[in-house]
Please model this.
Amino acid sequence: MSHEVFEHTADLGVRVRAPDRAALYAESGQALFEILVDDLGAVRPATALEVAVAGDDAAYLLHDWLGELLYLFTARNLLLCAFDVRLAHSGLTGTVRGEVLDRTRHRLAHEVKAITYHGLEVRQDPGGWSAEFVVDI
Amino acid sequence: MAEALSIPLEPIDAWSWRIPRSYKPGMRVDGIVYADRALLELAGEEQALEQVANVAFLPGIQKASLAMPDIHWGYGFCIGGVCATDPEQGGVVSPGGVGYDINCGVRLVRTDLTLADARPHLTRLVNALFAAIPTGVGMGGRFVHQGEALARLLREGVDVLRRRGLATADDVECTESHGCLPDAEPAYLSERALERGYDQCGTIGSGNHFLEVQVVDRVEDPAKAEVMRIAEGQICVLIHSGSRGLGYQVCDDHLKVLRGVPERLGIQLPDRQLACAPVHSDEGRRYLGAMRAAANFAFCNRQLLLAQTREVFAEVFGKPWGALGMEQVYDVAHNIAKFEHHDVDGRSKLLCVHRKGATRAFPPGHPEIPARYRGIGQPVIVPGDMGRASWLLCGHEDAMARTFGTTCHGAGRVLSRTAAVKSARGRRIDQELFARGVLARARSREGLAEEQPDAYKDVDHVVEVVHGAHLSRKVARLRPLAVIKG
Model:
């Protein structure tokens, strides 16, 4: 599994690769929080939460999953560092782990306003799955 | 030129270029880009010109899909994009044409202070501003709004703050749309959107948002500057922020609702981010009601930022802010959709004008301009970057026919965020700014690197184009002295 940030003039683009679709969503969550926090290694997996997202379209499902994770940060101040995703009949369920933001230990890097639909893509490649998304900064 | 870029471009005059409708099947009108050759080539290096062509697909679009000279690659619309649709011809509203940061905008405040008055206090001033005014990711502030108090703010805008003694009648008058878009519907906001608005009114946020102390560097048009009470050597404050988390959530919620709409109505779109609904549809009306509420929240956000700035100035300079002459010059929105009358083919039509990183610039005599500015045209505030300059402009008659009364909104980025961070490695941007005479305070060093002056085009260059193309007129150039950021 891997992810990288790609060039976008105003915002940040993310490219993710994983062996299967569940891992692709998990890795995308990791990528999102690496944009939000300077050192994700400083975030402890102290609490666990279940996140369920419904939907059949693989790309919209990625959008909504990341949107839920972003909501947990913006509304609940939760920084997440571990993501375990299981695909369901229509949608996914994720177990996410992290802790509440502590400004003495955590340094925030970017304000992600939203997960955009621009260039949003999930596809199956010969070697596994890949995704691209752009976040609004 | 056409060979150098992947998109066909035909010169119209020295300042504008046409992307012909024939470029892509599905374009309903031409694209028109206001730029000189150098700026056009920068836009051609990324996907911005393609995005101008994509916007031309929107149903009901009038005249052309337009781009201002600060054009750069956005999501869906380019930044610097303008699109007017006619609701009576199936015209749509597209949340992507407004953006997530609904009514992101800028406000300019003048003072009676001169550079000589301010210089000895600048370090204390910037430190006090940074301590008092919330900046940075997710930072809340001391003004909290929920329940009916929040609903009132969303419905009535800045006048609510005037009644609470946090805005003057002049502040309200000198704000675009008097700080309130009518027909705002707080009921169309989700619980999540309202929750995100709780303590964020009166906070700057992060990214490219900032508060700058500036000095008037050069007056280009003394008569107009006098009407705006602006003179060389005078201290001003520029505030740049928007609707914070509340606005982002409104856009996100309504884009989700619109997902299936284009397909259902047989609207072909080249980018999912351009999702839209007819203005005269339930989805369109609900988005517009919520968007207006978020826009009113943004006007209030900048008003509360001004109220806090005034408190800090009063403390640092030891005088009430009124005695310092801290009056608002104007406040403009640069991410918004508004209903305005414009002439199309000799007929006046009520159009839905989307401005995504573009500023309304109404000409002299326009009834929507405050009486005090009606003789000179609407003030337009164009932030540049934190090392070079910003501009004060005013509306020009020709812009009504050319760009639905619109001009640029800033310098426009030229470096991606990743490229800017790479170029800042091993450098201290705050120290470089200090060497240029600018005191910078930021929560995030990476944020400062992303927003460094080299990340932006030269705003003087962009302003030359809007002045030359008669989209607005130069009034004064301001240069930064101190900046606080997220």
Summary: Residues 91 and 389 of chain B are 38 Å apart (CA to CA). The two ends of chain B are 40 Å apart (CA to CA). Chain B has 17 helices and 19 strands.
